[in-house]
Amino acid sequence: MLQLVNVGTKSLVDYATISGRGLMAEIQRLAAPLEGKRVLHLSATAFGGGVAEINYTLVPLMQSAGLQADWRIIHGQDEFFNVTKQIHNSLQGSPQGLTTEQEEIFHRYNALNAAEIDDADYDFIIVHDPQPAAVIDHFPDSRARWIWRCHIDLSAPNEDVLGFLLPAISRYDAAIFHRPEYVPAAEELREAAFIWPPAIDPLTPKNMALSPEDAAYIVDQFGIDVERPLLTQVSRFDPWKDPLGVIDAFRIVRERHPGIQLALVGSMAHDDPEGWEFYNQTVAYAGGDPDIFILSNLNNIGSVEVNAFQVHSAAVLQKSIREGFGLTVTEALWKNRPTVAGRVGGIPVQIQEGETGWLVDSVDECAAACLEILGDPDGAYRRGRRGKEYVRQHFLTPRLLRDWLALFNRLNGTDTGETQLVTVSAGTV
Ligand code: UDP
């Protein structure tokens, strides 16, 4: 059997005060017909990146709602994850296609993993992202309902690579995307597509309330001078997150604010063999600058530390060039932080330019936004407050759980039509 992730337990009642009674009642109503249903989440890693972040909360909350939810991790060696990383890059627009050998590696590992799954154990099987997407090929007569959850930006994909995956993706009973623009043109897929954004858990160590004093105490331990302002970007070491552009913007800001410091906080995901190479490039680009702090899980950066860096920063950056959704933006907004982020992927869904944060298209714009924030902390804080409210309304986990339960009911034939799901063709149904 594939490795089971220990997600611990969470209780839905703890979320009532944050999410409101209406949503909680809706969740209860949707959960009732699904009592005891068995759900499998399948993904490539339990560590690093947005999928892991979401599942550590979503899976125990599904359990708390009365379902039997498991999360299992597929097996793979570097040869497989090198291919899947390239698939990820190509789906986000890289022109490089796959060789026949790479295609064979992808299918071989999907077959190996499929052999370790018994679909009869589950009513719903949720496959996250492209890595295990072709496992479904090995279950032609499955009685389980299969759902593909895509977390990446598919708005301008390499068509060859998308075409390679489409036969598998089209087999799913439903496919979920963050945004309507991400849904591929293939008709059979569009009919099964649903749109909803991911969410963050406000009660995890990463997002729970942390006082400014506690945050300062924690970042101080990493060598940050807590008396001087700090800019932070939290993200995997990946070119799409543009840490080199962040360093360029920081250098421009420093011309006017010589005391400024920069923290690039980034964990290494297990399914990302390229990560180290790009980490080394980032370190080299920083050139030993004592005011640039490049930190990762190797320095013992965990959830509380990410929280502390976000809370303590004068501004949080997410200068991505491509972005599926950008949970780091959600996390920063939830902490009232002035947030500067690339106008890509799911970020404009979260930040209304001028209202709840700053959307930028270049290094210069990124630097200008940081200068504005440092020059007017009160105005910046007001935007941060509005950002938090927006996250409360749209991007917290109970809403995500509601969307999943509504879809399960629909696939289960127990949909009462009271909860709207967003589709591409018909708007809402
Ligand atoms: N993250 C983290 N430590 C790090 C880097 C990232 O905990 O050093 C978390 C981050 O807080 C966020 C998730 O990983 O919850 C990244 O999700 P996002 O949607 O921003 O990007 P992805 O990595 O999925 O492309």
Fold and architecture overview:
This protein is an alpha/beta fold. It is built from 16 helices and 14 strands. Strands 1-3-2-4-5-6-7-14 form an 8-stranded mixed beta sheet. It has a 6-stranded parallel beta sheet with strand order 10-9-8-11-12-13, with helices on both faces. Strand 9, helix 10 (275-286) and strand 10 form a beta-alpha-beta unit. Bound molecules: uridine-5'-diphosphate. Uridine-5'-diphosphate (UDP) binds at residues 49-50, 53, 206, 234-236, 265-267, 301, 306, 324-328, 331.
What would a concise description of this structure say?
This protein is an alpha/beta fold. 52% of the residues are buried. It contains 16 helices and 14 strands.
Tally of individual domains? 2
The CATH homologous superfamily of the largest domain corresponds to Glycogen Phosphorylase B
What kind of sheet is the major sheet?
8 strands, mixed
Query: What share of the residues does DSSP label as strand, in percent?
Result: 5-15%
Radius of gyration: 21 Å
Poorly predicted regions = none
**CATH domain class of the largest domain:** Alpha Beta
Oligomer kind: single chain
